[in-house]
Every structure is written in C-alpha cells, then in structure tokens.
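User: Please predict structures.

Assistant: First:
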Amino acid sequence: MLKLLLKVRFASMFTRQRSVNGKRASGGGKRIILFLFLLFYAGTSIFIMLHTMYRDLMPVLIQNQLVWYVFGISTLVSALLSLLLDAQSARSQLYEAHDNDLLMSMPIPPGTILLSRLLSIYLFSLAYAVILYLPAVVVCVQNGQMSAFQVVGALFCILLVEWIPVAISCLVGRFLAYLHKRFTHFRIVSAVVTGVLLLAYLYFSMNLSNVIGRITADPVSYASTFKKTAWPLYLVARACTGDPLFIALLVLLTAVICVPVYFYLSRTFLKSVGSAKASRKKARASRSRALSPMRTLVLREIEHFTGNTSYMVNAGFGLLIELAFSVFFLIRKGSLFLYNPAFLPVGFVDVLPALVLSLLQTMVMISACMVSLERNNIWIVQSLPVTPDKVLLSKALAQFAICLPFTLVSSLLCIIAQKSLSLASVWIILSPLAMALLASFIGVRVNMMFPRLDYIDDITVIKRSASVMVSMLLMWPIAGFSIIPLFLPGIPIHAAMAFHTLIPLLICLPIIHYLRHRGARAFAHLA
C-alpha cells in the first residue's frame, strides 16, 4: 500500500490528466524532461559555485587539520534551506492535501498515509541537500582527504541526516496548520515572515564567498566557535568525514529526534486533517453593496492568493525582493555605482532602478497557476453568469492589482533615493508597471497551455508546474530583448527606455486577443 501511495503522489506531480479540449494529454514526458533540465541547470550552477569556494578554502583547512569544516558549512546551508522550504511544504502536503478525506475513508492506516507523505517530502528535500553536500565530497576526494570507504560513509550520512530537518519541518508545519485554521489573518503574517526569512537566507547565500574569505584568514577561531555553538552540526560534519564513532552518534541522534516525531504525528494525523476542521469565523452584520462582475472576479482571485500561505510565499516572493532592493537602494543613497563606466551609455545609472525593478517582475508568477488552482471547482466558475473571457482577464488583472502597490512603493523609494526628479523618474514608475502587466497576462496564457487539474496538493502547481517554469523562461528573453537599444550607439537613453516600456505593452495585445476568443472557448470546455 505504501508503494502505491507513493506512486500516486509522484504521478500527480509529473502528469497531466486532461488537456484543454477534454481529451487525454500526452505531454507528460516533455514536462518531466523540462523539469529535469531546469533542475540539472540549477544544480550544476550551485555545484560549480560551491566547488570553487571549497577548493580555495581546502588548503588552509588541510594545514590546520580542519577538513570537516567544509561539511559543517554544507550542513548549515542545507539545514537552513530545508527548514525554510519544507515547513510550508509539509503543511500543504500533510494537512491540506485534497485527497485527505478520500484516503481517510478507505481502510488504510493513518500511519501509512503519513509515511507516504513524509517520504515524498524527504525525497525532494534530499534532492537539493545532495547538491549542497556533493561539492564538499568532491573537493575532499580531489585533495586526497577521503578514501572510498569514507565516501560511502559520507553518502550514508547525507541520506540519514536529511531526516532531521524534515522531522522538525513537519512539526512546524503541523503548528502552522493549527494556527491557519484558527486565525484568519495568520496566513498573511506567516507568508511575510517566511518571505523575510527567505530574503535573509538569500542574502547569506550571496555573501557566502565573503564568509569563506574570513574563514580562510582565521580558520582555527571560526572552527572553535562553530564546534562550541553548533555542536549538532559539528557532529554531522565529523560523521560526513567517515569517522565511525560520529556516524554511530549521528544514527542515534537521528533516531532520538525522528522516531518520536513520527509516532506523535501518526497519532495526531487523523484528527488534524479533513475538511470538517474548518476555521471558526465570527459572523458580523455589515452592509454589502453590489460590485461589477469583473471587480468581483478580481477580488475573488486576490482573496484566494491571500488565503494560501504557500501561494503567497512561492508565487509572490519576487515582490518582497523588489521591496528589499528599493530599501537597499535607499540606504545606499542611490549610489549603486560610484561612476558611470565607459562601456555604459550616458545616463544609464539614472534608469538602472527601472531596469532592476522590471527584471524582478519576471519572478512574480501569481497568475501562472490561477487556472490550475480552480481544480474540481472549475465547473462553478464556468457556470457563472459571466463570459469566460472575463474570468481569464480577471486572473491577469488580479496579479497586476497585487503587484501594483508593491511596485509603486518600490519605485517611489528609488526616486527618493536619487534625490532629484527627472525624466528617468518617469521610467522608474512606468517600466516596472508595464513589465508587471505583461507577466500577469503571460502567466494566464501559459497556464491555458499547461493546465493542471489532477494534482493532490496546491504546492504541486505553485512550485513544480510547467506553466510556472515556462512563464519565467518566456519573461527572461523578453526582458533581455527590451534593453538591447540601451547599448546601441546613437540611441538616446530616454528613447531606449521608451522602447523598453512599450515592448511589454505591445506583447500584451495579442495575448488579450487570445484570452478573449480562443482562450475563452478553451476555458469553457476545460475539465
């Protein structure tokens, strides 16, 4: 039964049951290839970056007999990433999966259902953990610090230790699910806190090379502090070097943490899931007023976005990065460059905030999964007394409405940082808005090409669907093409910025035409 449950979960992640015309789709293999290609590209980039840093650090560590320290750094980075990403994923996959009610009505032990969910979370967590640990293993082997037996021991430790952050994340996920059911606005607070923590982790990752440089200057002091203040990570690091004693201690530590967590979750799993445990809401008498159909549909999509923490964190993370950049730009007094380099056009620094804010809009993929998130309720939207084209357009306008306040605030902060008003200030406002509008419509257009209505949990379409990946892959070349006139000789900087702003708006026109005609007909028959 466990094998069958795992097969169903992984099949739901990589297959699509029906296409837009109601017939059985045949593009599952292409989606898997695309997903694996993107995973390989991201993994290779991270591996090269970490391998380069560890290679430069290794001679100093060998000299001071601190080879284990590279595994300590890998353990720290991997554990932080697992705790940040797996907590929301555990809440979504364990307690908010759409098949919970169905499985609970079948003669399947709750512990078996829980174990299948834990294994799926563990395998995805293990995928990026291996990417973070592997450079350390390779560097140690290249420098002759690990034998074949020690490599096997390190791989065993990597497979074992990843259960610890998964277990802790599941406990955090259960606590978040409890709070989400009882406090209406806690989802927004949780999304903001998670987003801030992800920004902090991103900042730490970007400055990892500086940390490596400081460690190289004084490795003994840093290693001593690491050993005293983070002894569980030290234990894992020593075990990854192949030390039999520390491997045995790691096995004991993993069992002490994970076994009680599993039994606790299995005993409370049955009463923690199910649609009957709906959140209690206080009914308040209020005067309601009629809204237009389009405004009602847009508000419906916004409420769906703000009611799903995983949705906000993953699809709207680019908005937090946008705000973080504008605050950083304001703190630095608008001086990202001390001078205008010769190879850049005159006035390029003045419009640089507009280009950065426009580029960050390509990371906001809220509308790219809106059609898929309708799931079993899509027939309700199709039966509403509104035309299908209004439903599709409302999804695009909902993302633009969500992005609008973030983009305007970020633009105003960048203008304040420059301490002067000029024509560049106009582009700082208009260019990001144009790119945000394009991202909104491209997301809906691509989602109509790759609809997913047969998934088990929302995280599948929010993070791992083809529509999200393809939307980002389309936005990047458009953003790159629109800045080409900036580097062509003889073109004024403001004329190039006008082109940069106009191109996204022109691309929106055929997309709107599609959504109002062919896309509307396809949506009406989507099932």
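Second:
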Amino acid sequence: MSTKELIPRLEEKLAQVTDRHQRIDLINQTAWELHTKDTLKAKELAEKAGQEAKRAEIRSQPHPRGMAESLHILCRCEGLLGNFAKSISHGLEALEIFEETGDLTGQGRTYNAIGITYLYMGNYPQALTTLLEALDVFDEIEDFEWQAQQMNDLGYLHFEIGEPEQALKYLLPGLDLARQHDCMNVQCELLNNACNAFAAIEDFDQALDCGLQSIACYRQADSKHGQAEALNSIGDVYQARGEAAKALKCYHHALEIAEPNGFKFVITDTLLRIGRVQHSTDQPEQALDYFQRALAVAEEINAPQKIYECHRELAEVYKELEDYRKALEHFELFQAVASLVFNSRADNRLKSLQVMHQLKDARHQADMSRLRNVELQKQIEEREQLIADLEAFSHMVAHDLRSPLASVTMSIHMLHDYKGEQLGPDGREYLQIAHNMADRMSIIIRELLVLASVRQKEVTLVVVNMGEIVARALDVFALQIEQTGVEITQPDDWPLVFGYPVWIEEIWVNYISNALKYGGTPPKIELGYTRQEGNRFRFWVRDNGNGISPEQQMQLFASFSRLNRTDNQGYGLGLSIVQRIATKLGGVVGVESNGKAGEGSTFYFTLPGMIEQ
C-alpha cells in the first residue's frame, strides 16, 4: 500500500482511538510499513510515536514497547538515509528497552537493524557479529520469516567482502525458505542479492533472471528503496555484458526513484555507476559531473567508503583530461581517506574484540560463581541435574565464542584482501594457518551447541521424507564430492519415517563427513536402509576405509573421545550428537566393522516408520 493510501487510513483509525498505547502502536505500525517505501515519512511518524510515548499523560502507565519500536524504526530509517551515528544510537537505545521487557522478537529485529547499518558503514566484523546475534534469537523463537531475512543479510555481507559463492550458500536456501512461508518482502531482497552474486561469478543469465524477478517483486510490494536497488543490480548485469545503453537506462531510472525519496546512500552509489559507464564509453566530461555529484552526497552523509571511491574516480578522469594538478589533488585525498577507512576499520575491530572479551570474561566469572553456589547449596542434587547445568554452561560458552570468532575470521579475510600482497609468501602462509584454525574452532563450537540443544529441546515427531533429507545432507558436501571424485550410491526410493527433520539431517551429515574423511582413496560411499521388525527402519552409511577395531568401536559414541586416525581433526562430538539425537527420537545407533584395511565400516541409526494401512 502506498503512502497516499496509508496516511489517510492511519488518520481515520487515530480519530476512532482514545487509548494512547493503541495510538502509539498504530503510528509505529504505519511507520514500519512505510520505512522502505517512503523513508522520510516513516521517520517523521516514528518520531511522532516516540514523542507520544514520552508525554506526561502516559507516564503513570508507560508503554516501553511502543517507545522501543519507534526507536527501532528510527534506527532503520536513519541507516537508509545515511545518518549512521543516529542509526546506531537509536538502535542501542531500543535494544536496551527490548531486553528489559524480555521482548525477544524486538531484540532480534533491532540486532538486525544495527547489523545492517554496520554493513552500510563498511564495518564488516561488527556487522557479522550483530547479524549472528539476530540469527540466534530468531532460531530460538523459530521465526521463519526473520530467519530467511538473516540468511539474506549474511549472504549480502559475504558478497560485499568478495565471496559470491559463499553468499549464494545463504541466499538460495533463504529464498526457498521465504517462498515456502510466503514472505514476499524477504523474497525481493534475496532475489536482488542473488542477482548480484550470480553476476559476480559471471552467470549473467541467472543474474538477469533473478534481477527481473526482484524488480517485479519490489513493485508488487511498493518498495521504492528496493526498486532503486534492484534497478542498479540489473544495470550492473547489463554493464558486465557490455550493454552500456541498457545499463544507463536502469541507473537513471534508479536515480529518478532515489532522489525524491531521499535515499542518499543509493543516490551516491547510482551516481558512481553512471559516472563509471560514462568514463568507460569515452565521455570523461560527463563522467566528471556525476562523480562530483556523488562526492557531494557522500560527504553530506559522511560515508568514508564512498568518499574515497569518488576521489579515486575523479583522479582517474582528471588524469585522462590531462589536468594533472587536480588529478594529484584527488589522488592525495583518495589516499588520505583510504588510510582513514582502513585504520578506522582496524580500530573498530580491535575495540569490538576488547569489549566482547571483557563482557565474556564477566559472564564467565558470574556463571562460575553461580555454579559454585549451586554446588554448596545442593550437594545432594542428582547427577542428571548436574549434567544439565554443565551442558547449559557449555552451550552458553560456545554461543559466546561465536561472536569473537566471527570477528577474527572476518578480520583474517579483510587482512588477506587488503594487505595480502604486502605480507609475502610466509605471511600469507601464516594467515592461511590462522584461517584453518578458525574454521576448526567454528566446527567445534557448532558441535558443542548442537550437543547441548539436542538434550534441552523437546520436539514433536512428524512424517519425514528421508529422500529429501539425504539430498540436503549431500548438498553440504557438494563441492568436496566434486573435487575428490568420490563415488556415492543410494537407493532410488527412500521410506517415510517419523522424526525431526533438522536432527535427522545432522545424523546424515556426521556419518557422510566421517565416510569422506576416513574412506579409501578415492572414497566409495554407499547409503542405504533395511526394514526391521516392528515397522522400524535401519539407515546406514558404508565406507571403504581401513575399518575400526572392536576396542575403538567401544569409544566411538562417547563425548570428547578421539580415535588415533590419520586425519586427527575430530573431537568425538559428532558421533555423540548422533547418539543423543537417535535416543531422543526413539532409535539406536551403532557401527559394524571387522577392522580390516579396505573393508570399511558401516554406521547406522534406526527410526520408526509409517504404519502401513
């Protein structure tokens, strides 16, 4: 619904409402619906809701959620308008209120808004940290629309740091989830970002298809900001294909939408795009005009990343026009701003890591103190309760490690991208070692979280199509399977069983991962099932490795055990997770192997099947 339709409807409803809390909620609801369609009007409405919430008439009956929601919307609006400092300030204030009131949905949405602003600012480590916080919240409350939104934003982040293949691993599953739950707004964004990612890997047909779907989706949703972004993306595809005229048509259309709506960040980007096309088609004077206009807007919103891009382009154009004095002037400004951008990013990363370390240390000390008090006060507590407490603690520690580890990983990526050539062969080798260690830590933390959550979470068993689950599990290893030439066989049809799809997929992923690691050279993996008595099914993964001795088989499914195998990367958590999942689903796990080289091992688990009519 457009601004012209929403505002009269709001005024009509407000005229009928006397309760001040309802008035604030109505204003906020309208502001939210408008924030990507008419950002300036949405900002005005959110400010009005905030003022209503502060009035003396409702101080005796405060409305903290209404106040927090108005701040959350202002965070998004200021971010879209390029006012980053205001955006972050509003977001942190909203987050504090949502945390005080225990509103998890509000917390997740605000983490997302702050993370997006950090993305606009180019502070990628902090953006990743904040978006992961949001994802944790939406996973906890099982909000599918916002889960899809987080997959979109994480995909966009990876695209921004030059990892389009990794971006697509978030964007395409996110698009499936959004379509499955009819989340149109998220579909629009996912399609637009997929367009950019496909273009980056030079799959222009897929890129153009996604871009055209995206613009149609944004028009249906009446999102002006989205339409401008999608037009820029489609223009990029045409430009990459060498169709400059079509690219310019898209960019000018995007500018016609962005300028009257005050989308300053989009305006800067679009002006830069037009200038680059003009420059590439031997029209340096026209390019100069667009780059100067882009610089003016970038300086107005204080966007250092865009400012130094503008100076770089201006230096190149002036050099081509043989105005060397101005070329040198802009080149020096480019160098100065670029240095400021990179130093600021490094400083932000360092400060973020320091603050997170202090926070985690404080939480750790508090938790240790709590556990000691529990031990003193409840010495006769049953062993099962103690196990539950320790697992809750390990889950919390693992969860808290994700954010700093994400920042470390992002910092490694950025160091490689921006300073890789200066490090030399030895430096790049050490950087790769750090990257590998961070990947290993990420796997360990993930397995700790899964191990704890399986014990704590209660689920309802549903009918599961095992063929679909196996296909998703194999997709996880698609690149590895292609590179190693592994031979995988499986039945043409799989049975329907009762279970919990996410957990069952975790079992297959663990078993297939082990078969790939410890199979022969090359690995040969067979997936299958057998029907058992009592309408149960036994599913299994068979490899062609060296097998497992009876002594080792006794240790396999114990937590934190690790066998002395050639590839000594695992910590035994994976099979412990498998056993815990199968037990909660009413099944059993096991392994069959004679321990002889080349004769392999067969890992299995059981589940109840559908009752035949």
